[in-house]
Amino acid sequence: MAFGAHLVTPHSHDSADKTDTALESSSRGLRVLGLSFAILAATAVVQAVIVAFSGSVALLGDTLHNFADALTAVPLGIAFWLGRRAATRRFTYGYGKAEDLAGLVIVVIIAASAVLAGYEAIQRLLDPQEVRQLGWVAGAGLVGFLGNEWVARYRIRVGREIGSAALVADGLHARTDGFTSLAVLLGAGGAALGYPIADPVIGLLITLAIALVLRNAAREIYHRLMDAVDPALLDQAERVLSQTPGVRGVGAVRLRWIGHTLRAEVEIQVDHDLSLVESHAVAVEAEHRLIHQVARLRAATVHADPHGPRDADYHERLNRHRETTTA
């Protein structure tokens, strides 16, 4: 059999290899966060200065959003740093789930920026004020768009490459920020044409855009907290297992995200007359193929059940126990 080589050859994907890959992913995430934080913070500071002497509430909303987007790098950075720590006897799966907790903090920050931007826009509608230095306001909106779009592309690309839902969500957040920055140009244009109400109206539209980002980010984080995975990943894992030499059948397949890496728990069936060593070799080969062919999968627990003879029930005792506990 092809898996027979594993009887005498050690499995090449040891825990050190997997740990090195996970650490490299976290390092890339930290680099992305550091650079994007610097760019967004600089963008927000420039906009804040212009807000101070222009009085534009639309630009204020965009500035608040950019500050919030920069701040989201802080909890994510802490999460990536924690994710680099080794598993312990208490946290046996490591600290990867800190990314999901960071996602919750990001959702709260986005929500706070939406509330503050909406409040300021409504206040300006009730008490209109002249917007000054419209050229500077328009320029600040353009700067905000360019900064956010660059950060968005960077975060989304790296987030997808390393499998970080929180980083991808943060990138989508930055992209929406870019379009809200362009909306500032509309507010400045409306004010220049003699419609000062355009500025707070654009501020309200920006608030709506932030709320839409909030909904999408909250849904993404909810899926991770509930251990949701793309069903296509399950299909792929089942195909890999069914094509592994020595596997006679595939039982339950479970996948879950631990931070930005996947872990699997799978059940396979092997010939009932194989020795323990031979059955283990099939299981090792199955894990080997899963790690190679399923993106971002770092480890798999493979349980081998005997296949045959006919009418044999190797789980009779467990089945009776389950029936008793669920009755």
From TrEMBL:
Membrane-spanning residues: 32-58, 64-82, 102-122, 134-152, 178-195, 201-218
Question: What coarse category fits the chief subcellular location reported for this protein?
Answer: membrane
Q: Where is the composition biased (Basic and acidic residues)?
A: 11-20, 304-327
Q: Is Transmembrane helix tagged as a keyword?
A: yes
Where do the record's region annotations for Disordered lie?
1-20, 303-327
The UniProt entry, under InterPro entries, shows: Cation_efflux, Cation_efflux_CTD, Cation_efflux_CTD_sf, Cation_efflux_TM, Cation_efflux_TMD_sf, CDF_Transporter
Q: Give the location in the cell.
A: Membrane
Q: Which Pfam families match?
A: Cation_efflux (PF01545), ZT_dimer (PF16916)
Protein name, UniProt field: Cation diffusion facilitator family transporter
| Top-level taxonomy | Bacteria, Bacillati, Actinomycetota, Actinomycetes, Streptosporangiales
